[in-house]
Amino acid sequence: MKNPLKFIQEVKQEAFKVSWPTGKETIQGSLMVVAMAIIAAIFFLLIDQIFKSLLEVVLRISI
Length: 63
What we know:
With about 60 residues, this protein is an all-alpha fold. The chain has a domain at about 20-63. It is about 85% helix and about 0% strand. The protein has helices spanning about 5-15, 25-60. The chain starts with a helix and ends with a helix.
């Protein structure tokens, strides 16, 4: 990188070529991420509760 000004100009040109998402697409994508995070959290909570119950049964039997 010999000329920083040329580099900045090239970066600016490339930024104009990018297909930026619309506001609606950004909100929709964000909502999908939040929804999937909630679903994953509920799934892992249920799995954790099942394993906890199984472990309690095993520990109760062994005592």
